[in-house]
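Q: Focus on the chain.
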Amino acid sequence: MKKTLTFAAVAATLLLTGCVREIYEQQPSEYGENVPVGYLATSLSWEQDRDAGTSVHQLTSAVDGVGASFSKGYGTLREAASDAIQLPVGEYDFITMANMTESDGYVLSGVPPTKAFERTGGIYVSLKDTSAPLQQSWFGVTGASVKENVVSVASPVLQRLLPSITLHLTDVPAGTVISVTLKGVAKRILLTAKDANGHYGLPGEETIDLVLGTVTGDGDKEFLCLPTASNQERCFLIFDVTSSSEPPFTCICDVPAVSGGKDYRLDLDFHDIESYLYITSQRINDWEEGWTISGEVLNPQVSSKK
């Protein structure tokens, strides 16, 4: 898959040349006179080409290693790319989080303070308010080696945190409101661990119900959501349907697990909605799956809508 380089990649390369590099290498050790140090700069790229033009208003970089742990915030990609963090010589885990702040609706835990000397237990992210509209964010994790009197470069690839579900409904009667909830998603995500597919961002096992929003007519409606909890093979997409002319009813869509950063699409005629639908998936590309009704009824005791 193609990775689109950001300005940060160019700036970090410039950081390694000329007088800027000499200035960093001549700075005294911040960790003690006898502690050899080097520097770590950032070069970022996007996992998905469609994110290349994303506006980043807050970037947080954190390193975690035996020698020290460190975190620092930046307002722009340019600011992050022109900086280099001084660290004791050694091996580190390096993570960058973009637009993942409380004002964006997120709560981070495990981010080390500046110049901590104990390793963290990993960095977790959860939602500040599960009823608020979700905003997409990005993060990247990589290993980094700091060498004495050298400005090294860490090159995390920014991947999407949240999956999305697009509902394409047709023949929705006028005045009908469909409230959409997703059950079985992870309450928090361990950014610094890999999931079963080898992708960073391991969902936890504790689940929550996530109210996604409403659909009131035909066409596409996209909802951002959290990935399915790691101990769940599937999750449930719930439609609570109300209208002025028909009794309210609930549809339980038994859907495949959703993974961080991927897109899912379900095309559905309103008149095909029953009290229980079993949904299967078909891979479209690296980032997208199409969902369809399989026709298999696994819970025949659920009564049909009237």
